[in-house]
Amino acid sequence: MSKWYTYVVRCRDSTLYTGVTTDIDRRLIEHNKTKQGAKYTKKRRPVELVYWSVHENRSEAQREEYRIKRLSKLEKEQLIIAC
């Protein structure tokens, strides 16, 4: 059984993008160099990983993603600093 990750990347324009994946390294390469990266990050490359959390399944990871996406930018920045 693979682990799932919720992650946040900081884009070139200082905006934050949140997503889920089973392979953070692969996903960062996709965001930075391939067509599989999110549409949002393609125009804001390069991106840098600034936060991640590990989850036992996709459902937990997506719940955390939803929680983070509802935070204000300030609250997201505080989350990043806290880890």
TL;DR?
This protein is α+β, with helices and mostly antiparallel strands and 83 residues long.
Ordered list of secondary-structure elements with their pairings:
Elements lengths: L3 E7 L5 E6 L2 H10 L5 H4 L5 E8 L2 H12 L3 H10 L1
Antiparallel strand pairs: 1-2, 1-3
Structure explained in plain terms:
The protein has 83 residues and is of the alpha+beta class. The model has no long low-confidence stretch (mean pLDDT 96). The chain is globular, with a radius of gyration of 12 Å. The N and C termini lie far apart (26 Å). A three-stranded antiparallel beta sheet has the order 2-1-3, with helices on both faces. It has helices at 24-33, 39-42, 58-69, 73-82; strands spanning 4-10, 16-21, 48-55.
Please, what is the average pLDDT? Answer: 96
Describe the global form: globular
Percent of residues in β-strands: 25-35%
Largest sheet: 3 strands, antiparallel
Strand order of the largest sheet: 2-1-3
Q: State the secondary-structure class.
A: alpha+beta
Could you name the key traits of this structure?
single chain, 83 residues, alpha+beta, 4 helices, 3 strands
